[in-house]
TrEMBL record:
Lineage per the UniProt record: Bacteria, Bacillati, Actinomycetota, Actinomycetes, Motilibacterales
Protein name per the record: AAA ATPase-like protein
Annotated Cytochrome c domain residues: 162-328
GO molecular function terms listed in the Swiss-Prot or TrEMBL record: electron transfer activity; heme binding; metal ion binding
Location of the region described as Disordered in the Swiss-Prot/TrEMBL record: 1-20
Keyword Protein biosynthesis in record: no
Database matches in InterPro entries: AAA_16, Cyt_c-like_dom, P-loop_NTPase, WH-like_DNA-bd_sf
Keywords noted in UniProt: Heme, Iron, Metal-binding
SUPFAM superfamilies membership: P-loop containing nucleoside triphosphate hydrolases
Cytoplasm as UniProt keyword: no
Pfam family, one: AAA_16
Length: 392
């Protein structure tokens, strides 16, 4: 098969040639955009799921849908321990710049930019240089209290969008990495905006424990956001993800090849692209057969072991690696295990392992599925660990 014509795209956050299995979320978001633009109440949206299920890809697709409807948009990627005041300022600046050419009152836009500049300067980093020539406003979004400032800033931004008959959508990736104070402020701002019907929505994406994090911050967050769990593809959507791009290049998979690939990938979108790319490059001709898959699978697994899995494993300390190996030995598949069982496996008391567990959570390698249990954030990570030599 010609590698130049290989249609599969296993990049981080890279949109696959066929975005299969996400039609429901895309259609639902179109309704949100339409309702908000008409002044009807709608909740902001939070996408949750494991690594590799395509949350970032879907986040980008939803942003494209908002842009198509002439909304102002901005995107932020949260980072552990870093306030999002600065990144939010940049994202909101971009969103309003998209709306400004259609606004009939340049002075209104300029007044908002002055408020935005005042908000940004309170970050205290001195790193944000947006090229806003106006002086920072006084008495608006400049108290230094993020919750107060954020409510005022987003309210003003929404009014700019309302003036031109559209809205603003802010897209927040890795939302679970927001500092607790920022989570409080964001929830409070979204709550205020939802009560006033302001045309601004936040679309977040994060790991499966994100709903619990938001709920711990503000009790009303479970009613404030609409949660969409993003998971593996079912067999029909998996087939669509592989066969549609192949047909466009004049190639086909036989039924046994598709079944073998589904067994190898479990329908996880990143794996579908990774295995699909390797199988394409390995197969001598179309149709691609189960024998082609069997030949290609070891190469695909080797590449994932170095990049997708290995890069994460290398970030862990020796104690953290021991903890993850114990998790892998306790459970087959992507299921949670009891922290007490991990402690027993390691011959330790549960309390003594809390620092190790917390370190893994902060590195984004595991998450607390529910009280007293722990699970990998990456699908098939346990299988990867079970295949590694004990001293690696």
């Amino acid at each position: 098969m010609d590698p130049v014509r290989n249609p599969y795209a296993p990049g981080a956050g890279q949109r696959p040639p066929e975005l299969a299995g996400r039609d429901r979320e895309l259609d639902a978001f179109d309704v949100v955009l339409e309702r908000v633009a008409k002044g009807r109440p709608e909740r902001s949206l939070v996408l949750v799921g494991l690594r590799g299920v395509g949350k970032t890809v879907l986040l980008n697709a939803l942003r494209s849908a908002a842009i198509t409807r002439l909304w102002g948009t901005g995107k932020i990627e949260a980072r552990p321990g870093q306030s999002f005041r600065g990144p939010l300022s940049s994202a909101l600046h971009l969103a309003v710049r998209e709306l400004a050419p259609r606004h009939r009152d340049p002075e209104r836009v300029e007044a908002f930019l002055a408020t935005l500049k005042a908000f940004a300067l309170k970050s205290g980093t001195g790193r944000w240089h947006p090229g806003i020539d106006v002086l920072p406003a006084k008495g608006r979004a400049d108290t230094g209290d993020l919750e107060i400032d954020l409510v005022e800033l987003l309210t003003d931004a929404a009014s700019i969008a309302q003036d031109v008959g559209t809205g603003i959508a802010l897209f927040l990736d890795e939302m679970q990495d927001l500092p607790p104070g920022d989570v409080d402020a964001l929830c409070a701002a979204c709550h205020e905006l939802s009560q006033t019907g302001a045309p601004l929505v936040v679309v977040g994406a994060g790991l499966p424990h994100l709903p619990a994090t938001l709920s711990a911050s503000k009790s009303y967050s479970e009613r404030l956001f609409r949660y969409a769990r993003i998971d593996r593809l079912d067999r029909a959507e998996f087939d669509r993800a592989l066969t549609t791009p192949a047909k466009e290049e004049g190639a086909e998979f036989d039924e046994e090849a598709l079944a073998a690939l589904y067994a190898a990938t479990d329908g996880y979108p990143y794996f579908v692209q990774a295995y699909g790319k390797t199988v394409w490059d390995t197969a001598p001709a179309t149709p691609i057969t189960a024998d082609d898959v069997r030949v290609a699978v070891p190469s695909a697994e080797e590449e994932l072991a170095v990049g997708f899995f290995g890069s994460r494993y290398d970030r862990a300390t020796p104690a953290e690696r021991d903890y993850m190996r114990a998790m892998a030995e306790l459970a087959e598949g992507d299921v949670a295990v009891l922290t007490s069982a991990v402690a027993t496996q390691l011959g330790r008391k549960p309390a003594s392992l809390s620092p190790v567990r917390d370190g893994l959570i902060k590195k984004g390698l595991v998450f607390s599925a529910e009280r007293g249990s722990i699970a990998f954030t990456v699908p098939h990570f346990g299988r990867f660990l079970r295949r590694q030599p004990a001293d690696s």
